[in-house]
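Quick one:
INPUT:
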């Protein structure tokens, strides 16, 4: 597709407080996007469609074009049995999957709605058990305070509680209990870290929360609880839920790590692309801050040239606030080629979700078949829709 004059900036993967987020609230994300001249914005929460209508309304108020997405963690049993790491570098078989361009207002019926509710319940149950173990640890060290899970759920989350919420709660309660005395806070945290030194400054909240999570809530930590396999649906079931919600199943590439390494599944992009097509997945995405420009050019370029719909995002699902405007691991802005690929992908999603909103079949129909031969017509239509809003 030819280059449009002055391509709009796109961030198609943003977590909000409906899962966990660096943003204070949903409109904080949109205000930052607007300030940074990002015109197309995709909400992309774990297991949640709850922010869609507010995202729609508040985006359009700011002349931003909204995309409606979701994220799941699924399990590929065959890959797990064979020890193949897919897009989770530490857990063979575990596979993150996004859905792009879902119906707004949300329109998910049973059995899919019940499956989604079940996954959310399992996720919360695991974090509740982590909270219980964290409280046993606090009691063992005579902390003088505990963490109430219901309070975290009602006051710090939108109903879906993640381990990052617990890390934030522990950091906040510790600061309150020790009256923000840096020396006392540091001493206490190092004590419950079993003597491990705190690296972050006490008032680097994101850094402290990351260390709490790493030392206490991840594998090997005193409050770690392994996830129950029933919390992860098979990939096929997740794709059916996404299709049932009107969306496009999308594979998030992990890409290269800081040492230039790849997972087993992703080390050969051509083989990965072929396997994804066999599994009924015709769209891909990258979190650009993880990857080198060189790898993004190679992988996203290959996928785009071979019929995939490709988009990029930043996530923002940690406490650390980063720019909404996309950049690579080297802190470089996207090349014109990458901007074009991202915008083309956003255009397809925009056209798809507009058709689905009218009750019609979109780029991917209800059975998962992609209209790849007509991708350029979706790009053209999506561009018209986007330009109409952002002008």
């Amino acid at each position: 597709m030819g280059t449009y004059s002055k391509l709009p900036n796109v961030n198609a993967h943003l977590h909000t407080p409906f899962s966990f987020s660096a943003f204070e609230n949903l409109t904080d994300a949109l205000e930052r996007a607007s300030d940074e001249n990002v015109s197309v914005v995709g909400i992309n929460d774990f297991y949640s469609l709850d922010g869609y209508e507010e995202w729609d309304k508040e985006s359009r108020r700011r002349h931003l074009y909204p995309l409606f997405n979701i994220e799941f963690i699924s399990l590929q049993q065959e890959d797990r049995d064979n020890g193949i790491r897919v897009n989770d570098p530490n857990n063979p078989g575990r596979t993150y999957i996004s859905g792009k361009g879902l119906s707004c207002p949300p329109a998910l019926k049973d059995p899919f709605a019940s499956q989604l509710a079940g996954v959310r319940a399992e996720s919360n149950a695991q974090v509740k058990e982590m909270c219980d173990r964290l409280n046993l640890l606090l009691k063992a060290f005579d902390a003088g305070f505990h963490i109430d899970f219901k309070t975290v759920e009602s006051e710090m989350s939108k109903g879906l509680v993640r381990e990052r919420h617990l890390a934030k709660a522990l950091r906040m309660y510790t600061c309150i209990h020790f009256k923000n005395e840096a020396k006392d806070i540091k001493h206490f945290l190092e004590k419950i870290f079993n003597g491990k030194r705190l690296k972050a400054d006490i008032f680097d909240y994101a850094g402290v929360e990351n260390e709490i999570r790493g030392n206490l809530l991840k594998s090997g930590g005193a409050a770690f609880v392994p996830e129950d396999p029933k919390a992860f649906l098979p990939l096929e079931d997740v794709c059916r839920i996404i299709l049932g919600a009107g969306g496009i199943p999308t594979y998030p590439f992990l890409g290269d790590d800081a040492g230039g390494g790849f997972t087993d599944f992703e080390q050969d992009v051509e083989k990965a692309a072929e396997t994804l097509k066999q599994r009924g997945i015709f769209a891909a995405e990258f979190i650009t801050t993880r990857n080198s420009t060189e790898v993004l050019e190679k992988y996203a370029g290959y996928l785009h040239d071979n019929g995939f719909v490709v988009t990029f995002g930043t996530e923002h699902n940690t406490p650390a606030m980063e720019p909404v405007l996309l950049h690579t691991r080297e802190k470089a802005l996207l090349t014109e080629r990458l901007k074009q690929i991202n915008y083309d992908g956003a255009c397809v999603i925009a056209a798809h979700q507009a058709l689905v909103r009218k009750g019609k079949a979109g780029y991917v129909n209800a059975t998962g078949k992609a209209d790849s031969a007509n991708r350029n017509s979706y790009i053209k239509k999506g561009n018209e829709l986007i330009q109409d809003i952002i002008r």
